[in-house]
Each structure stands twice: as structure tokens, then as C-alpha cells.
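Worked problem 6 (solution included).
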Amino acid sequence: MPDEPLPPETATALEPPTILVVDDEPELCLALSKLLRRNGYQVLTAGNGEEGLDVLRRHEVHLVLSDLVMPKVDGLDLLKAAQVVSPGTEVVIITGHGTIETAVGAMKRGAYDFLEKPFTTTTTLNVVRKALEKQRLRAENQALRRQLEEIQGKWDIIGKSRPMLATLETARQVAASSA
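Solution. The predicted structure is:
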């Protein structure tokens, strides 16, 4: 049976977020991995967009840092695929060869932000923290909406007491009746 990806919102507060670094420059992958691990993140790496997509399919990933220009599957293709395979995952595009207009275009397509090479440690960590905070807040919001739906059911009534649940069940049973 193939590994099924876990949605990012299943992460607990105890485990650090997982960041996937995708770049065809091994030195950059290594440098970013070291920086992120030193700051308490779990890090996965991929040398190209195809590998990155495979990692997204097999692992719970909260944030992707992807180079824009790579052979075969580039950063924009990976962004598009990530939105389907792991819609709760944020994506930050790293650009060195492309233009700022291309990076802004990536943001319009759903990337959280972009980092222009060469980038500083401070800038990188700030973008990572903000992207992960957005991802966390979105996941929390979805969880709260699910909780509210469970409490409310199909009615706009909030209540969990036995008498209230019995009344709602009676109303549901007789709703279709003409009595």
C-alpha cells in the first residue's frame, strides 16, 4: 500500500514543523537545511521538482522552500502540484535567475512569498516563521470550523446538553412530516 500524505493540520504542537527544501544546487540545500535545523525545524530536501513532489506525496510537509529555475519540474510547476497534493502546505519561491516579476507572479498563483538570492539568515527565518504562522492559523481555523459544525449540526443552534440534543433529534425526525 503506498504511503498516504498526512494533512499539515494534523501536526501537534509538540512536533516541530517540517520544511522541504527543493533546489538543484546541493550547497544551497545543505546550507538551508543546517540553518533550519539549528532553529528547531525538521528538514527534508530534494534535488529537483520531481523529487520534491515525491516527498510531498509521502510526508507531512508544512512549508516548501523551492528554487524557481530547475530542470524538468521548475518551482512554478511544483507550486501548482503542491496546491493539489498538499493544499495546506505553504510554498516560498527562491529566485536567483528569474526576475522579481516572475516571483510576484508566483505569489499571485498562490506562493506565500519569495526569497531573492543572495538572501540573509534573518530574512530567511522571518519569511519561514511568517509562512508557518499563516499555515498554522489556517489549520486551526479549519479545525475550529469542523468543531463548530459538529456542535451545530445542520442548525444554527449551539448546544450539547441532553435535553437540547433530544429536542433537536425530535425536530429532525418530524421535519419531513406534514403533521
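Discussion: Strands lie at 18-22, 42-46, 63-67, 90-95, 113-116.
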